[in-house]
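Final report, Chapter 2: Outcomes

The project's central promise was a pipeline that accepts a single protein chain and returns its three-dimensional structure in a standardized token representation, suitable for archiving and comparison. That pipeline is now operational. To close this chapter, we reproduce one record exactly as it appears in the project archive, with the input sequence first and the structure output second.
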Amino acid sequence: MALVLCTGQDPAVMETRQLILEKSGHTVVLAKDEREIEKACQTHPFDVVVIGQNTTPPVKARIFRIARAICPGTKILELHRPFSDKALPKADAWLVMPTDAPEELAKVVTSLAEAE
């Protein structure tokens, strides 16, 4: 399965995301700020980076740039709220969160990890 970096600001939401992904067989690293994200990207060859829905668009853009610069082959999944637009037009995938089907997160991550 995939090595996934989950980013976000709410520890409870990040832990829930981690549980969902690990239940599906993925290995998850959590990072809450840009410094932790940069360090994690320098340390691990991530398959997928998940950018949390509560992250502001400017911070999402910085996370995107960090991930692309350090791990250029990493797939980027932007989570966004139902009432907000996508902030990262060059992301590899998008998912509206929260969702009625939490397992959808794991399905999208698996799909991205398996894509060439």
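Archive annotation: The chain is about 40% helix and 20% strand.
This record, like all others produced under the grant, will remain available to the consortium after the project formally closes.
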